[in-house]
Design brief:
By secondary structure, the chain is mainly alpha-helical. It is about 70% helix and about 0% strand. The chain has helices at about 10-50, 60-85, 85-130, 135-150, 195-235.
Length: about 240
Amino acid sequence: VKMVSRSMKTTPAVTCMKTLLAIFTLIFLVIGIALLVAGTYSKISLTSYNLLSTTDFTSVPYVMIGVGAFIVVVGLAGCCATMKGNTCLLRTYAVCLGVVFLAEVVGALAVIISRNKINNGFEAGMQNAMKKYKTDGAYKTAVDNAQKTLHCCGSNNYTDYYTLPGWNPNTVPMSCCSNLTYCKEHLVDNKGCPQLVFGVVNKNLGIVIGSMFGVAFFQLVGLILSCCLASSINANKYELV
C-alpha cells in the first residue's frame, strides 16, 4: 500500500459536487440579497400600520433583514470554502447552514403563532388611534393613511367618529371622503379599518413565512452537498495504487 500526495487527483464525482455546491452558493447569495430587499420593503410598508395595533410587530421585518444579512455572509464564506475545497471550511459552512435553517424555521413558527395576537390588536389599536387623532400627529397620519389607502372609515364604520369625545357631531375625517366637497354623501366606504389593515399586514407576514420555509428547505440541499463534498475530498486524499 502506497500513499499518494495530499494534493490528490480530483475525481469526477468531487468535481461534479463542487460545481453543484458553487451553483447552490450563488443562488444562496441571491436569496440572501432578496431577503434583505423584502425585509426592507416590509419594514417601510408596515411601519405606518404599527400605530394602529396594540401588538408591536415591527420586529418581523428585522428578522428577514437579519437572516438575509447572515445568509450573504455565510454565502460568501461558502464560495471560499467551495473554491478551496477545504474540508474544515466546508464543514463549518455546513454548520452555518444548519444554524440558518433552525433560525428560519423558529422565526417562521413564531410569526405564525403571533398572527392571531396581531389580528386581535388592530381593533383596540384603531380605537386608540382614533381617540388620539386630534392630539397626536403620528396617529393622525397613520389613521389617514389607512383610511385613504384601504377605503375604510373608523373601527367598525364611520359612525364611530360620531361618539368620540371632543369630536364634532356627525362629522368624519376628510380621509374618509372620496369627494372632499360633498364629504357626507360621498364616504369612501362604510367598512371599518381593522380587518382591512390586518389583511395588508397578514399578506406581508405570509410573504415572510413562505420565504423562510422556502429558504429553510433550500438550506438542507446546501448542507447535504457541503457534507458530501467534504467526505468525498477526505476519501480521495489517500488512494491505493
